[in-house]
Design goal:
With about 90 residues, this protein is an alpha+beta fold. About 50% of the residues lie in helices and about 15% in strands. It has one domain. The protein is built from four helices and two strands.
Length: about 90
């Protein structure tokens, strides 16, 4: 069996991870988790150094307190079938 060697094009991978298609997927995921958590949660998609990221956060003080006491975002993340990065 021949040994196969390939080189990953890091610039192409970065372009893919920052593409409009990737941002659309992240928008969909962020919207799903934020709506599962309740009306007082919001999300934001932005570019980091090498990838796009979605942040989901409490939009009000009441939601922040609810999240603190009940782990609302974590529960919404689990209910959506997604997992958080470790």
């Amino acid at each position: 069996m021949k040994k196969v060697v390939f080189k990953l094009d890091m610039d192409g991978l970065t372009e893919l991870k920052k593409s409009a298609e990737m941002k659309a997927v992240l928008e969909e995921m962020g919207s799903s988790v934020a709506s599962s958590a309740g009306g007082d949660y919001d999300y934001r998609v932005h570019d980091a150094d090498y990838t796009s990221i979605v942040n989901i956060y409490p939009a009000t003080k009441e939601a922040a307190r609810d999240n603190y006491e009940n782990n609302t975002l974590l529960n919404a993340l689990g209910a959506s079938g997604l997992s958080m990065r470790k």
